[in-house]
Amino acid sequence: VSANHGPELEPGAGPTPGSIAKITIDRPQVRNAFRPQTIVEIAHALDRAREDTTVGAIILTGEGPLAFCSGGDQQVRGDSGYLTDPDNPDRQPSGSSVGRFHVTDLQVQIRRCPKPVVAMVAGYAIGGGHVLHLICDLTIAADNARFGQTGPKVGSFDGGFGASVLVDAVGPKKAKEIWFLCRQYSAQEALSMGLVNTVVPLERLEAETVGWCEEMLANSPFALRLLKASFHAAEDGYAGLQQLAHDTNLLFYGNEEAQVGRDAYKQGRRPDFSVFPKRP
Ligand code: 2NE
């Protein structure tokens, strides 16, 4: 995985009130299939982008025009999950080759990231790679993009977000078709079923994606943060509500009423909340 920030992206028109992080899965020789190490690196890059207070939008993409991501690397698929690179023992935790399945943690991380994450898709978004684009907040597809699930063909499936978020996007009949038949769909078909936000010429893909990000950067980052949490709150149950609730707590910290409580505690006295209205 490689990661970079706004200035290295193809520039759009005018200055932007923030920067854009770009995370690229860099394994084009296998259509950007992910190994455990790939997931670890994407997770670190996402963390960096989240912590960087200048970053207002994050692009997730794959290297080259042929693929966004082709899902889990079947060459390192063992009997207990995906194995750490067998050619590189240094990457084996405690020397053992324990199978992992932590792309699911990455999906949660993308969903809970308080900044918009945009999938920039050229070529194949297939299998676990299709779920990754699905989890992103927006998808900008090149006209050569192809979408689909392969799980049942290769003895796998994603019945988590890969099923539920797909149902929300395209409806239950289409979601079941996608999973049961394992067909591939063109960018235009994906657009017409609500899987992607727009389809653009391949040569315009990055410029158009940056343009969408710049439009979001011009808007209130906190409003976008609260909206993203709100969109997910019901589906994610207590975890979704927890995120939304703590975002309101974050706002409350900036309020004088909350500060009265903090200051009284620090000064060892009783807080006086009497001046604050009991709002109707
Ligand atoms: C992506 C697709 C349709 C591309 O087809 P094409 O014809 O453009 O390329 P080709 O020749 O199939 O692939 C090029 C090279 O990449 C490797 C291929 O084996 C091939 O290697 P060489 O022959 O050049 O040595 N490659 C491609 N995808 C790979 C993969 N996922 N793992 C390892 N090597 C891969 C076509 O390549 C394709 O259908 N790929 C397989 C897609 C797939 O089944 N992915 C796994 C689904 S399961 C999953 O992702 C998953 C899950 O269900 C649940 C949890 C976590 C993960």
Automatic annotation (TrEMBL):
PROSITE patterns: ENOYL_COA_HYDRATASE. Residues 77-98 are annotated as: Disordered. It comes from the Bacteria. InterPro entries: ClpP/crotonase-like_dom_sf, DHNA-CoA_synthase_MenB, Enoyl-CoA_hyd/isom_CS, Enoyl-CoA_hydra/iso, Enoyl-CoA_hydra_C. Keywords: Lyase, Menaquinone biosynthesis. Substrate binds at residues 31, 70-74, 82, 124-128, 150, 156, 253. Hydrogencarbonate binds at residues 149-151. Gene3D superfamilies: 2-enoyl-CoA Hydratase, Chain A, domain 1 (3.90.226.10), Lyase 2-enoyl-coa Hydratase, Chain A, domain 2 (1.10.12.10). Converts o-succinylbenzoyl-CoA (OSB-CoA) to 1,4-dihydroxy-2-naphthoyl-CoA (DHNA-CoA). This is 1,4-dihydroxy-2-naphthoyl-CoA synthase. The gene is menB.
